[in-house]
Write a structure and sequence with these properties.
globular; 8 helices; alpha/beta; two-stranded antiparallel ribbon
């Protein structure tokens, strides 16, 4: 992946965008040396609430400030109780592939997201299926299209987005279908590399 991205960067600006925090995204990108922000022209964590351009941090937003400390605590307590009571055969993080397969059959996260919507309708939050084992919660409008605020005045002719949760309810859906982007649905990192090579490096 790193080699393909380095080749791409010689031809165009590249960036990453994730719903997770900065350290989790760095692990997913398998950047083992140096600052991950230095390997990309743009880097967006937490849907773009944390943003970097050419290795420099841009002004950020805070979920807790938006929701409020008291409401945040209620939400977190509900989530922790709900997760503790879920009866799944796989709870160890190293078994994420097994949980993902189990979840596709039993819809654990889909049911959880529905419960959050039912219990916190006044919070004006969006709940969606996240990565392989996660779920995302963010203020309405703070989905991954939030990151486009950081690049919309940069003069790019095209903005291509690659994501695996591009279906309705997935955390890539909004930016994948946004009129400002050209969306590409991928299955996994290998499929992402294949598509990048076919579209930009062939």
């Amino acid at each position: 992946m790193a080699d393909v991205l380095a080749q791409l960067r010689k031809k165009m600006a590249i960036g990453f965008l994730g719903g997770s925090d900065w350290s989790k995204i760095a692990d997913q990108l398998e950047i083992n040396s140096g600052n991950v922000a230095d390997k990309f022209d743009y880097g967006f964590a937490e849907n773009g609430l944390i943003a970097y351009k050419m290795g420099k941090e841009l002004p950020s937003q805070s979920f807790i400030k938006f929701v409020g400390e008291t409401e945040y605590k209620k939400l977190v307590n509900f989530i922790l109780h709900y997760l503790a009571d879920i009866d799944v055969p796989i709870k160890r993080i190293q078994e994420r592939n097994e949980f993902e397969a189990y979840d596709k059959i039993h819809q654990i996260r889909t049911k959880f997201v529905q419960k959050l919507k039912e219990n916190f309708p006044e919070y004006d939050l969006t709940y969606s299926i996240g990565g392989q084992i996660s779920f995302d919660i963010f203020p309405r409008g703070w989905d991954k299209t939030y990151a486009l605020k950081h690049v919309e005045d940069e003069g790019f002719e095209e903005i291509h987005f690659f994501g695996d949760k591009t279906y309705l309810g997935g955390n890539d859906y909004e930016i994948y279908t946004d009129s400002r982007t050209i969306g590409h649905s991928v299955k996994n990192p290998d499929d992402t590399i294949r598509q990048l090579r076919e579209i930009f490096l062939s």
